[in-house]
Sequence to fold (285 residues):
Amino acid sequence: MDTQAFLQRIGLSGYDGPPRLDGLSRLHEAFVGQVPYESVQFQLAPGGPLEPEESAKRIIARETGGYCFQLNGTMALLLTELGYRVQMHRGGAETPTRAGDVDASHMVLTVSGLIEDPDQVWMVDAGLGEALVHPLPLEECSVYQEPYKLRLRPSEKVDGWRLDHDPRANMIGMDFESAAVGLDAFAAQHANLSTNPNSAFRRLASAFRRKPSSVVVLRSVGLSETFADRIDTTIIENPTDYFAVLADVFLLPLPHYTQADRDQLWRRVWSQYEDFLAKQASAGH
Fold:
């Protein structure tokens, strides 16, 4: 991994601090603020790398952001290179349409080895899209990371932990096991989620970016930003604006896309929006 190139990509050029809590917090905020959680990458080219080194190359080139396996895998590699002790854990997110089984459909990181307290363990997760800005101590706690309230507590599903999300978010919560695993534990789910036409990551082009005090989300052509006191929403009605939003808001200029690729992607996301409207109309009747 070209660590310095990656640090430059997330706005921390020259960072070389020892493994301290303030450094971990800076790295986490910079990562989620500069690298979007996104499924745009799977719309025209299903699949993609699980290996952190390959994901990092694409992120540095601004060809993709990533989803949980890619983002947290890359974060794990980056933190390891910088001297932190990192472990991966099997998790599963709960949404209104998903039960949240802990089936390795999500990857979570824990980090230790900080100079202040080498044995203190921290939950790190750059792959939830709309959750953490900063790490959480791996202990029962409630925190406010604007605009959301979050709670970490022992899991009722597994020997591990549960992150309860703010009711305004799409995700209800996420559970993960205490036991550490290797990257290969996520290979089967990555293959399924990134290639199966019925996977949510294939069916809907989405992007999330976690800012210090808001969360900006793109679902097909619907753009929203959640603040502490309001949610701003708009519909993107033409391809010029759509690709400008990807580049300017989500820092995803897609330099490798030809005009034909862009035309195809626009047709796909607009079709997803039309399908959404049709389902709404059907539900209304």
Observations:
- Residues 248 and 278 are 30 Å apart (CA to CA).
- The longest strand covers residues 85-94.
